[in-house]
Amino acid sequence: MGWIAQRWGALEQARACQEQALQIERERGSQHGCVTQLAHLAHLASASGNLEESLTLYEEALKVFLELGDQCSAAGMLRALAGIAEAKQDWETAISLYKEDLEIRLRIGYKLINVIRTLTQLGWLHARTGNAARATEPPPEPPPTAEGFAALRQALGDAAFTAAWEAGRAMTREEALAYALEETTG
Q1: CA–CA dist 168, 134 (Å, integer)
Q2: Residue 43's domain spans which residues?
Q3: How many CB atoms lie within 10 A of CB 128?
C-alpha cells in the first residue's frame, strides 16, 4: 500500500503504511523484513526531499544488509547513497559509491541492466565533473532527448563530446567495466 500511495503522490499516507509494515516485521521478528522496510522508508524520505533522513536510513539498511550477507540489497543501498551524494553535488563520494555498487553487482553476477545503469551514472558523473575523457556515453534512462544530448555536448564541448562518445561505443563490455572501475585523478 505504501508504494501505491507514494506513486500517487500521497507521501504522508505512504509513510504511515511503511511505518506500519516496519512494525509488523518487528513483531514477526524478521530482521530482513525490518531492514527492507527501513530501505523503503529511506526511499520515501528521499522522494519527500528529506535527504538527511534518507541518508541515515540507507546507511543503517546498508549495514544490516551486509551483516545478513544480502549483497544484492547492499548494492541497491550503495546506489541509493550514491544518488544522495549526487543530489548534494558530492561527486567524489557518488563516484566511489557507484564503483562499490558496480563491484558487488559484478561479483554476484547481478542483472546486466543494473550494471549498465551504474556504468551510465558513472559516465554522467564524469561528464558533470568535467572529466570528458571518462564520460563515455549518455545514459539510456530516462530516454535521451535531443535537448539532453545538446546540453551534454555544450558542457563538454564538441570535440570532447565526440571523442567520449566514440570511445564509449568502441569499448567491449569488459573494457567498459574495467574502465569504469579504474581510479581517476579528476
Answers
A1: 9
A2: 1-69
A3: 16
Q: Are residues 61 and 100 in the same domain?
A: no
Of 19, 54, 69, the last residue of a domain is 69
Report the C-alpha gap between 19 and 34 in whole angstroms: 10
Q: How many domains does the chain have?
A: 2
pLDDT in tens, 19-51: 888 888 889 988 888 888 888 888 888 888 889
Q: Which residue has the higher pLDDT, 80 or 102?
A: 80
Q: Is residue 8 part of a domain?
A: yes
- Separation of alpha carbons 36 and 82, rounded Å: 18
What count of Cα atoms within 13 Å lies in the side-chain half-sphere of residue 130? 2
Contact 39, 68 (CB under 8 A): no
Measured distance CA(75)–CA(98) in Å, rounded: 9
Cell numbers describing residue 185: 585523478
Nearest to 79 by CA among 102, 45, 60, 61: 102
What's the mean pLDDT when you consider all of the chain? 77
Cell numbers for 92, please give them: 567524489
**Is position 142 within any domain?**
yes
C-alpha separations of 119 from 21, 42, 88, 138, 184 in Å? 33, 23, 20, 10, 15
Instruction: Give the pLDDT confidence of 93-143 residue by residue, as tens digits.
Output: 988 898 888 888 888 776 666 777 777 777 777 666 666 445 444 443 433
